[in-house]
Amino acid sequence: MTAEQPFRLTLSQPRWSATAVSMEDAGTAGERLFARVRVVLCGLLLFIPLSSYLVVRSTENVIGLSVTIVALTIALLLLFALERSQLRPWVGFATTAFDVSMVTVVLAVFLMAGEPLTATNSRIVFECYFIAIFATCLRYDRRLCVWAGGLAGLQYIGITLWAVTTFPLRQPNFVSLEYGSFDWSTQAGRVVVLFIAAVLATLIVDRTQKLRQLSTVDRLTGLLNRGYFDERIEEEASRARRYGRPLTVALIDLDRFKQFNDTFGHAAGDDALRTLANVLKLSVRRSDIVARYGGEEFVVLFPETSPHEAIEKLETIRERVATLRIPIARRTVPAQVTLSAGVASWPEDGSAVDEVLFIADERLFAAKRAGRNCIVGPPAADVQPSLPFDNGIRSTKG
After folding, report:
1. Contacts 24+ apart (CB under 8 A), 353-361
2. Cis link prior to 347 (omega < 30° from 0)?
3. Which burial class, exposed, middle or buried, applies to 132 when counting CB atoms under 10 A from its CB (0-12, 13-18, 19+)?
């Protein structure tokens, strides 16, 4: 884009979306939450076959106890892995498949033990499918709701066909005192109810996503809002402390924004804010967090990034913003804006989040005092100037 070309504002960008980022983060938190819930549920479910086994050592109780112990062991391993690693996009599908398939495994074991009516007519085991389906609501991903419902329905159809083709279930004398007889309409109704549960879970997630978007996204710029940023910076700081990784934050402010509003009007000011937001979205990595901090101020969080690397990226952004032209209604000459930024990092600039943000804010003011349209970061490690902020200036006013 040349200096003569007007900037065309585009709010919808497939590469970076505040809504998508917030949903991914919510899904990650939900995945880890249900990993803990899964352990608790497996522990509670363990008491059902265990108490029954202590009273009557039947085949059904032995099967239930064995499968529940295996499920609890796997749940503990999943919790350990999820708490200590970065989640991949396929993890939700894998854990959802595990939750659904464990129910199916229990039913399959009953079939292999020669108890087909327990597999097709059991109420307690079958209802565990619904726990697996509605657990997907915690992951904020409609695809997982469909995946869980479809997988549960198909697996249960497989169990039913296996039972029918292996055992004489349709004979009138094939009856269980506890589970009754086999009935096709009952089995069809169970499958339909599973699909209905998947539809309801999908609608719940869809509604939850809309509500979360309203609570985490700034409506003017489409960026994340300050409330969401405050949550994320605490999480990233905790991760940085745990693994000893760098964490850099930048506070960015449009220069002379009040004067810009007074000259061109508030509608043009909104366009300027959206312009900067759009540049920031297109210029950072997906793992970086960009938010509107308040008014004309923005904040960028750079996980696992040194101050030097962050300043190099911000310098590119500063230069790009300075060359943009913002069309103004009823004016033939487009407007221009510049930005100033203050950069601070953990742990060099503070051991707490508030301390690092304070230093970034101080350096932002230093950039304003230095003439604006510049970036102030930490001084070089081998230099100890009397005015520490001045040494961090990376570019002067253009």
Report:
1. 353/233, 353/234, 353/237, 356/237, 356/247, 356/249, 357/233, 357/249, 357/251, 360/249, 360/250, 360/251, 361/251
2. yes
3. buried
Question: Helix 142-166 to helix 184-216 angle, to the nearest 10 degrees?
Answer: 170
Per-residue pLDDT tens digits for 208-240: 888 877 788 888 998 999 988 998 898 888 888
pLDDT in tens, 262-281: 888 889 999 999 989 999 99
**Which residue type sits at 79?**
L
CA atoms of 216 and 19, how far apart (whole Å): 8
Please give the model's pTM, rounded to 2 decimal places. Answer: 0.66
